[in-house]
Amino acid sequence: FIFLYFPETHGITFRIQISVKELLDTDVLLKLLFHLPVNYPSTLPDISVNSDQLTRAQCRDVKDKLLEQAKKHLSEPMVHDLILWIQQHLKYVIKQSATVCNEKTTLSKRTSTEDGIWMLLLHLDHMRAKAKYVKTVEKWASDLRLTGRLMFMGKIILILLQGDRSNIKEYLILQKTSKVDVDSSGKKCKEKMISVLCETEVQSQHKRYNLFEVKEYSTLDELQKEFETAGLTTLFSEFVPPLLK
């Protein structure tokens, strides 16, 4: 693992990267940040967990489990023990996370229906780094359990998302604040040319997408049929033809 430290006026911050092998047949790179307050170890450290191989929910579960273990070592040095513990137990934390997630999904089906599923239609002006951009959008949709389509037709680029309203809101934040594309000089940049065409609650006549797909259409008719099949004819008529002008 990589071990760095940065002294601060309010304690010390450790940035640690560890590779955990044999989890779902792939290596998982965990990026851990421990902030040790000045009265550590009498006070628990602040812990941050990130990984490209795990979802946000899984990273939160890893953090929660690390904090649980930290409480058992209060008043004694613990960072090394916590690192060894997560290396040995990550597989079980992830499995437990998946089980809890499935239970929550089952228990909340009725609540989600009552709260309503929301739909978001976005228009992007362009994608310079298309392959990377598409991969990023797919990952965000997967992490936030959003379904729908990333649609290309000529120069038109549309993102249609369905899911819990809070997750739709979080997606919008990611879309607007992350360096997801490159500018004309090839430098990474945030998305500035994005339009929210529609944000509304999914109605009974609307088809629910089961997954998120990237699709390309040769003609406007093909794109229109995509919307019609999903019960979104009005949405298409109102927002898509003006993009051709």
Task: Annotate the secondary structure layout.
Elements: E1 2-8, E2 11-23, E3 26-36, E4 46-50, H1 56-72, H2 79-107, H3 109-115, E5 118-124, H4 130-143, E6 147-153, E7 156-163, H5 165-177, E8 181-182, E9 188-189, E10 194-201, E11 212-217, H6 220-229, H7 233-239
Parallel strand pairs: 6-11
Antiparallel strand pairs: 1-2, 2-3, 3-4, 5-7, 5-10, 6-7, 8-9
Helix pairs in contact: 1-2
Largest sheet: 5 strands, mixed
By CATH, the topology of the largest domain is: Alpha-Beta Plaits
How far the N terminus sits from the C terminus, by CA atoms, comes to: 54 Å
The CATH C-level name of the largest domain is Alpha Beta
**Alpha-carbon Rg, integer:** 22 Å
| Topology as a string of helices (H) and strands (E) | EEEEHHHEHEEHEEEEHH
Shape descriptor reads: elongated
Q: Which residue ranges are poorly predicted, with pLDDT under 50 across at least 5 consecutive positions?
A: 100-114
* Overall residue-averaged pLDDT value: 81
Structural class: alpha+beta
- Named at the architecture level, the CATH assignment of the largest domain is 2-Layer Sandwich
Keywords: Cytoplasm, Nucleus
InterPro entries: RWD_dom (IPR006575), RWDD3 (IPR038840), UBQ-conjugating_enzyme/RWD (IPR016135)
Subcellular location: Cytoplasm; Nucleus
Protein name: RWD domain-containing protein 3
